[in-house]
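Reply to dn_fold:

You asked what the input looked like. This is it:
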Amino acid sequence: MKISLVSPRGAERNQQNDIIFDIYEEMEGHLALMMDDIEFIPNLALLTLASYLDPSWDLQFIEEDYVPEERVEEMLFQQDFDLALISIVNYTAPRGYEIADRYREMGVYVVIGGLHASALPEEALLHADTVVVGEGEEILPIFMDDFLNGNPKEIYRSVTPADLTKIPPARYDLIKNPGRYNKMPVFATRGCPRNCDFCCFPNLYGRKYRHKTVQQVLTDIGKIIEIHREPYIHFCDENLFCDREFSKELVRAIKPLNVPWECFCDIGIAEDDELLSLLENSGCRDLLIGLETVNPEIMEKIDPWKYRKLKKYKEDIRKIQSYKLPVTGLFILGFDGDDTSVFRNICDFISDVGLYDMDFAILTPIPGSELYTRLKSEGRIISENWSHYTWTHVNFQPMHMTPEKLQEGLLWIFREFASSSMLQKRERAGVRGRQGI
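and this is what came back:
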């Protein structure tokens, strides 16, 4: 059997045709530094699901973003596939649907899954023979049995959380050009106890925190080391360090591997001196921390836990950085309490705390999130052009400014921190770009 595992291109992935791409062009004198900010990461969901398929089958892992334009037709549509597994997020959904429609015209059976399909399965089903809702690890073996027996269903929904300790190693060997990627993905955990209404993961993965075994993670990293000359490990977990004992065991195990790595976590790690000591000199190159806002009134409505932490943001960031651990602060613009003063207020906070790496995003009502449901009911979503759900476009009506002012503010704050003087400060501080500017 021949199967294509497809990750469609996004209209603005990796700053190609991005709304802020002109800012990158202005930084020609700092090209090397700016290039560090552009991420090239393979689709871990498809590589993981591939491990559930018969290894004797012909599996073609196709990431359209990394296929030369002149070869797209050949790789996607000039092979005799029996089955196509297409994984979509919001901004790749339109192109994913185009590919799916074309496959079906050719007689290829199409399965669509991923975050977007899980949130809007009826929409995805207009372009697929089968839609997978939720975690695919529990569903794919059931679907494959049905498919091979000639009675596949239109929609499969995961009922129970996947047992992460039973997930086999991802099929990194399917990557034909590993050197094309500057970061290689791994995941160790799922679930997050925080309560951010803009996040769609709780509805997909649940809030219960689960993790693999440390040995499973080491096996995945070992597979990456086998295929990549200079691996840089990117943990895709929503919040890697929620389980402190597991976190410490994992960091102790990673350190001897001598590989650089990064992860998403929350500001709470500042309270754990033992974990910070372990992270120091462990190969950790970046801690991406969702700070969201510096406005207490807004934070109180976003998440009570983060609200309680906000008053110590500056102290905690400085403490983490004192362990020589780079922090990337992640900020969101456009909350209901934000007006045009938010841009200057965040700039002042960043300058005051000495934070040299940061990323900014427009609040985005991702389908499947509580935010999407609320703004939809309030009639405030002004666009469902999924190609623009990239966290850089305004797709809703803000409460205290126009959509145009919010869009202008994002570009302004990117320019402020992409200035030559700021880039030089980051360079002198030894901070390399990771996520944003």
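The chain has a mean pLDDT of 90.
Hope that clears it up.
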